[in-house]
Design brief:
CATH topology: Heme Oxygenase, Chain A
Order of helices and strands: HHHHEEHHHHHHH
Helix content: over 70%
Structural class: mainly alpha
Number of helices: 11
CATH architecture: Up-down Bundle
Bound molecules: fe (ii) ion
CATH class: Mainly Alpha
Strand content: under 5%
Length: 280
């Protein structure tokens, strides 16, 4: 039956996407480059410099997550359930946005007694780092101004694939999103391991601010939450391809996903390369 063969070709396309992502992750030089970069940090000043660039890069990337969820929900008629027979009830954009929103809701988490907004936690982390090394914020800013090339890359991190809102761009933004969630897991775990090994007193100091005020919470949280965001992102990709409308566009959209994923790998590599050159 035509319907069955179409379904199985979709299934194999979805399976092959998973394989493609696994292969791309294995081929990406980013992990090795970041490991090398961490090994070359030669002193407290270089460490503060690196951690500042690490914090602001992740803040730029985090900011795009709720934007992407909103953009998907704001785009009707791109994701359609062919089984439903009424125009509004056919829309799947809210459900696909929800997979991305899972990561966004972590980003803005507040409980009745705690503010766990990731930007705020990252400010407590970096502020704690400066205090540990007894450097005031204004002095740090004077010694480590953000060069134009990094400001440009942060702009790219915030806005890549958000300019035109065309279907191909939205799929590319989804691919980029899955890339950033996977590589964030890798990046946070590498930095955490490095700090625990090389700067145990710093980590102990940041962790020791008390359970409700731990300045290390931002870093520690991201060593575990990102992999869940990545899995939710994979689910978003699969749903997006399954409900893509018109369905004939699916191969093209699959290519856009791959383009977006590769763009993230490339951006992260260029960003840390620029950070390294900036402090050389
Ligand atoms: Fe976050
Ligand atoms: Fe995340």
């Amino acid at each position: 039956m035509a319907g069955d063969s179409q379904t199985s070709s979709y299934d194999s396309a979805l399976d092959s996407l998973g394989d493609w992502i696994d292969a791309s992750i294995a081929e990406a030089p980013n992990k090795q480059l970041l490991e090398q970069q961490l090994q070359t940090i030669g002193g407290d000043e270089a460490l503060m410099h690196f951690l500042h660039r690490f914090v602001v890069f992740n803040d730029a990337l985090a900011a795009r997550v709720p934007f992407l969820a909103g953009l998907i929900h704001l785009t009707p008629d791109l994701f359609i359930d062919p089984e439903a027979d009424q125009d509004f009830c056919r829309q799947v954009n809210g459900r696909i946005a929800a997979y991305v929103a899972e990561a966004a809701s972590d980003e803005y988490r507040m409980t009745p007694d705690r503010n766990l907004v990731h930007q705020y936690l990252s400010q407590k982390f970096f502020g704690g780092v400066l205090r540990h090394f007894q450097v005031d914020g204004a002095t740090f800013d004077r010694r480590h101004p953000l060069p134009a090339c990094l400001a440009e890359l942060l702009g790219e991190a915030r806005g890549k694939f958000f300019q035109q809102r065309a279907p191909g761009e939205i799929f590319a933004a989804l691919g980029f999103h899955v890339g950033l969630e996977f590589f964030a897991d890798q990046e946070f775990n590498l930095v955490d391991q490095y700090l625990r090994l090389r700067y145990p007193e710093l980590v102990a100091g940041l962790e020791g601010d008390g359970p409700d005020r731990s300045a290390y919470l931002w870093l520690a949280t991201h060593t575990v939450v990102e992999i869940g965001h990545y899995r939710a992102g994979i689910a978003a990709l699969k749903a997006a391809l399954t409900y893509c409308y018109p369905r004939e566009q699916a191969p093209l959209m699959l290519a856009s996903i791959k383009q977006g994923f590769n763009s993230f790998v490339d951006l992260q590599r260029r960003y840390y390369e620029s950070v390294r050159l900036d402090f050389a």
